[in-house]
Amino acid sequence: MRFLADAGISPKTAEFLRRNGHDAIHVREVAMQRAPDRQLVDKARDEDRVVLTFDLDFGEILALGVVASPSVVIFRLSDERTNSVNQRLQQVIAEQAEALASGALILVEDTRYRIRRLPIR
What gap in Å lies between CA 94 and CA 81, rounded to an integer? Predict the structure, then answer.
């Protein structure tokens, strides 16, 4: 699976994903840490990547359009440290790979996650 980690996500999460066989880049690695969210969505869609973020604005961007991609994972965790994010992300990937591949907005919380299939109508 291919991922694009937003600026709020630790670059160590991109490293974690690469160590686990995924193609992952962090916005800092491609000099996009100050790019508007819409530009990141376009890059992720063009490169077939799942956006990883803490930023709720990505959900709003998807809700406003009639787009079926890219998938976005928004973390809403009480513990935002890298290990906690990585553990929750690993679970979501294992359980929801098909949803991520076909277009979904997944809101990841401490004890659960919620999925909205794209496009959001």
Answer: 20
